[in-house]
Amino acid sequence: MARLELKGVCKSFGSRAILSDIDLTIEDQEIVAIVGYSGVGKSTLISLIAGLIMPDRGTITVDGKPVTGPSRERGVVFQNYALLPWLTAYENVALAVDEAFPELPATQRRQRVTDTLALVNLAAAHEKRPRELSGGMRQRVSIARALAMDPEVLLLDEPFGALDALTRGTLQKEVENIFRRQKKTMVMITNDVDEAVLLADRIIPLSLGPSAKLGPEVRVDLERPRDKKQLATHLDAKRMKVQVIDYLLAESAAKRALKKAAP
User: Fold this and answer.
1) Which one of 71, 81, 91, 202 is CB 3.0 to 4.6 Å from 87, fit for a cystine?
2) How many CB atoms lie within 10 A of CB 175?
């Protein structure tokens, strides 16, 4: 049985169709990257999987059970961190742990928070509030908060999009290390094809809207761990990148042609 499955999922906001006939199957311990232009519906797709919004048609299941709302089995990491500014790094993660594991003794909950912050290299930043942290450190807190709930599926909504290049590269390595250690199933939204080749097992482009659909998948059959510098000259990595980019460019050209042809 697939870990995550979407069948015939459609979503509109008012009269604007965002996603149409989305079919997606993701196996356990697989990383899938959804790549596309800004504004085509990638974040809407993540919100649907997270249960933050419901599809107009179609079904979404995790381990065969329908998604009917948010759940700790699906942890979400947002681009904008979404931390509570008046709480420390420790308290932001503890809030999620207390919500997810109210039955655990307080000592075990505290240990889970401490261990997860250490996993993302924030052992020394427990008492710092978001304003005292760099962008990369804030995103580490956000990742720790999601991981601390021990989700079945980790959803990453352009988690590195607001970071500078050096911090982005560091966090990409850390996310891959976390995957190798914890073997999480991940769905990652990105508009960076290089990032998708670096981290994913499969890359699936999302067409331009309205009524965006998933395009042909590209399998990333490259050994882990992957090195960003080596991938820059790796022939197979280049081929995979070209496949995704060619599809997206063709979609864009087709949409422009339709607009010109419209009366």
Assistant:
1) 91
2) 25
